[in-house]
Amino acid sequence: MVQRHDATTLHFDLRLEVDGVLASWAVPKGPSLDPADKRLAVRVGDHEMSHATYEGRGAGGGPGTVIVWDTGTYENVTVRQGRPLPAAEALERGHLRFVLHGEKLTGGFALTRTRMSGDPKNWILVKIDDDGADRERDLALEDRSVLTERANEDLEP
Ligand code: MN
To answer: Which of 22, 51, 52, 81 is the most exposed, fewest CB within 10 Å of its CB?
Structure first.
């Protein structure tokens, strides 16, 4: 699932269930359906599963507002040396390939850890070129919750 978090700076929190918790990345520019785009995804702390449907003020009294921007299921399709690699191991090794079945995002994506700026928290999110790719669609225009159709502004005090 992906939360749209309008805090000090707007970003999108990509969260994938791995071994009962939500492995999480903050994506400043948000995901893209254009395979040519490389989006910085900063690995942040795991979140509890209960956070997957959270909307409201910044969680835990944090700044800003949070909506559930996309939700659905995913398949880990990471392969190493011809064999499927469990998601937890793939993350440890720094490369996860997965297929999203979301309401906004569908198809293959890859997350790859980079040494960019020497910070191991920096990963890159790219769309795999498949049927879910779309070079025209501007996801920035799609700013509403898939659960409640609310926008972040609707949650401001
Ligand atoms: Mn956030």
So the answer is: 81
Q: How far is the CA of 25 from the centre of ligand 1 (A)?
A: 8
User: Cα of 54 to ligand 1 centre, how many Å?
Assistant: 12
Cα distance between residue 132 and residue 34, in whole Å: 9
Do residues 33 and 136 touch, judged by C-beta distance below 8 A? no
Residue in this structure with the two tokens 């920096």, named with its chain if needed: 122
Q: What is the pTM of this model?
A: 0.95
d(CA 4, CA 12): 5
58-103, pLDDT tens digit by residue? 776 678 999 999 999 999 999 999 999 999 999 999 999 999 999 9
| Residue whose token pair is 């993350």 | 91
Q: Is 96 exposed, middle or buried (0-12, 13-18, 19+ CB in 10 A)?
A: buried
The pLDDT assigned to 62 comes to 76
